Amino acid sequence: MAHSSFLNTLWLTIALFTGTAVAADQTVTLIATRDASIYHGLPGSDTLADGSGPYLWTSVTAEGLVRRALLKFDLSAIPAGAVVRQVTLTLWESRSRGDHNIALHRLLANWGEGPANAGGSGAGAPAASGDSTWSHRIYPGTPWNTPGGEFDPVASAVQLVGSADASYSWSGALPAGGGAAPRIVIDVQSWVNAPTGNHGWIMIGNETTPQNAKRFESRNSGFDVRKPQLTLVYSEPVVVAEGDVPLPAWALVMLASMLIASGWRRFR
To answer: What does pLDDT average to over the chain?
Structure first.
């Protein structure tokens, strides 16, 4: 017990002399601040939109209409310099036709969430000013460089999505023993470090098979608990107290040696 008490005192003393403090991990859950659906595959569908409706749509209808969903979160609540340790995106699926993978891809360009509201049909609505569509990231004046969205071709996360009336999550965490970070964590960390690069994700399902449509609740859902949520675990940056000057390395070694020698004599 005395030995443990001595070690605790040692580390506390070093922390006080260096002017550093290590904060405990923080957890925050955010609701999407922007989301939309875009459409393709039928005559005129490239200018359909759904920026203000209660649902997000992916995959393909029986008629061959392809849908993709876009979503973004405001990360300004995360302090600059924070280390993102775990990321979990959760959506509520309220309608389903077949189990298949839904992939998240990091978007590379800004896009709009306009007033178009397609309701519950999943067929889209005529785009209005500010909407995102398959052809335009901000309708009608700013087209995508690549129709269907400008995004990283390598998925950030993939999740098998099955039956409806259930929540599904895309997640990743820093390995406890070190190693490569999951791409979904890298995405969020890059947005914390450089907020102007935060354009969110695009959700892409199975687009090769008809009649496999999926419907998720959007941020305009009437049920708060079903809105898209992003849960983050992060560590705040090391704090140096104002006016403190951390000791150089040689002084820390000397201090630690003196404390250890004194402590060993006292507690042995």
So the answer is: 87
Residue 134 CB contacts under 8 Å (≥ 6 apart), including other chains: 38, 39, 40, 45, 46, 47, 48, 68, 144, 147, 148
Query: How far is it, in rounded angstroms, from Cα 88 to Cα 128?
Result: 32
Q: Decide: 236 and 23 in contact? Cβ < 8 Å.
A: yes
Q: Virtual CA dihedral for 216, 145, 76, 52, nearest 10 degrees? A: -40
Both tokens of 192, joined, read 């914390």
DSSP 8-state secondary structure symbol assigned to residue 94: E
pLDDT digits (tens, 9 = 90+) for 82-93: 999 999 999 999
Calpha distance 150→248 (Å, rounded): 48
Which H, E and C letters describe 213-242, residue by residue?
A: CEEEECCCCCCHHHCCEEEEEEECCCEECC
pTM of the model: 0.82
Q: Which of 104, 73, 113 is nearest to 199 (CA)?
A: 73
